[in-house]
Amino acid sequence: MNGGSLQGRRLYIPQMSYEGARCMAAAFQSMGIDALPSPAGDAETYKLARQYLSGDECLPEAVTLGNFLKVTRQPDYRPETTAFLLPTSNGPCRFGHYLPLAKKIFSERGEPVLIFSPSSAGGYEDIGAGARDLVRTAWRAVVVSDILRKLLLWYRPLERHAGDSDRIYHQILDAVCQALALRDVGHRKRLHAVRAALIEAKHAFNAIAIDKQRPLLLIGVVGEIFCRLNTFSNDELVREIEAQGGRVWLSDVAEWVWYTNDEEIINLKRAGRGLSFAMFGCRIRHAVMHADEHALYSPFTDAFPGMEEPRHTNEILQKSRRYLPREGAHGEMVLSVGKTIWYWEKGADGVIDISPFTCMNGIVCEAVYPRVSRDLNGMPIRLFYFDALQHDWSEEVEMFMELAQAYRRRRDR
Ligand code: SF4
Questions:
Q1: Which ligand 1 atom lies nearest to the CA of residue 57?
Q2: CATH class (in words) of the domain with range 216-252+309-413
Q3: Nearest Cα residue to atom 2 of ligand 1
Q4: Which among 111, 97, 36 has a CA at the least distance from the CA of 69?
Q5: Which whole-number Å values give the CA distances from 338 to 222, 251, 320, in the listed order?
Q6: 229, 256, 359, 365: which to mutate for ligand 1, most atoms within 8 A of CB?
Q7: Ligand 1: residues within 6 Å at CB?
Q8: Distance from the alpha carbon of residue 289 to the mean position of ligand 1, in angstroms
């Protein structure tokens, strides 16, 4: 394994979204690895991270490292039995900076924790025996957590008794994680168990007392993946939108995974490897991923009427082409602009972009959104920047919701 073995260590999974970290920990547990989500963010997160930051780091980096440092405050913390999962990339984005900084921090502290950073470049060989099984279960964990989040966001704005949806969500999450974590079973059996837990989830959410007549504004949410999914980083903006009469349609994680898969194919073609073993391997892997995704989503084909996702990421990229062609612009900015147009076509009343302060994706999108909004008949698009200040957003959201309401009235006239 990369940097040592996970044997005898507890592996902490960074908490981008709570459900995502829980499901990913379950995927590692299915391999017999003692895995848990890293602690959630709070004021201590920034305090701890700040001791090691220069000020150039982005918010997700500070939150991820601060939450790792929170582990060191736990009474049972022992560095020699602790590991942190920290994927990395080579791109220009500061994500590639997390790993060296985490290594530096723990080296300065003189603590022999393992920073575990599996990489796709070597076919995840660093995970060791069973790597392929883990990668497949991890993909299912991504899909399942996306589905659970969608269920929560669909039902919560309509619930008659506050807290019902959150309670069901936590119960179901436990059941789904148990199914993902099953050990010594084949992929088919695990898929069957996870699917059964998801069907239970659907029934449980369906049984919540809701007010179907409650008028809701449909608000699409795009932006930087960590910040839009991490409720601590975005100051629980989704709940604020819901409190002010909105239903949130949040861009999911699978969308990003499919985008990177698609880029992988394009890069192979560009390198003249259109007919290569690498390309063959990609195609097979993507076909398996599609099959698993389809199997997990099949009980939900009619669950989110009016909020259907595109069949392929290319549909989103085609929509952003006019503003940010994928050949010249990369990453989340392309997806955010394309998905904004997708939301508009599906009847959204407004779109909010959640971005960390100083992130290039948000800065580029902010320059493009006024034109996009004009082309979309004035649908309000507003970018909210987040830093570590833990702001009360109620007034800004209220103003945005008024714009969304006015847009809806104009549109439906
Ligand atoms: S996209 Fe922006 S916020 Fe996210 S990791 Fe990269 S630099 Fe940081």
A1: 8
A2: alpha beta
A3: 359
A4: 111
A5: 10, 11, 4
A6: 359
A7: 58, 60-61, 93-95, 224, 226, 356, 359, 361
A8: 26
For the purposes of burial, counting CB atoms within 10 Å of the CB of 238, is it exposed (0-12), middle (13-18) or buried (19 or more)?
buried
Which CATH code is given to the segment(s) 10-126?
A: 3.40.50
- For residue 14, the CA-to-ligand 1 centroid distance in Å is 15
* Model pLDDT for residues 362-391, shown as the tens digit of each residue: 999 999 999 999 999 999 999 999 998 879
**Run of H or E residues at 330:** none
Query: Using CA atoms, how far apart are residues 147 and 292, in angstroms rounded to an integer?
Result: 13
Which residues are CB-neighbours of 164 under 8 A, at least 6 positions away? 208, 209
Compute, in angstroms, the gap from residue 57 CA to the centroid of ligand 1.
Answer: 9
pTM of the entire structure? 0.94
Residue with tokens 């700040």: 50
In this prediction, residue 93 carries a pLDDT of 82
Sort 272 into a burial class: Cβ within 10 Å, 0-12 / 13-18 / 19+.
exposed
195 CA to centre of ligand 1 in angstroms: 33
122 pLDDT more than 90: no
- Predicted confidence (pLDDT) per residue in 139-155, tens digit: 999 999 999 999 999 99
Tokens of 303: 């669950």
CA distance 82 to 87: 16
Q: Could you give the residue range(s) of every CATH 3.40.50 domain in the chain?
A: 10-126, 216-252+309-413
Residue nearest to atom 4 of ligand 1 (CA): 224
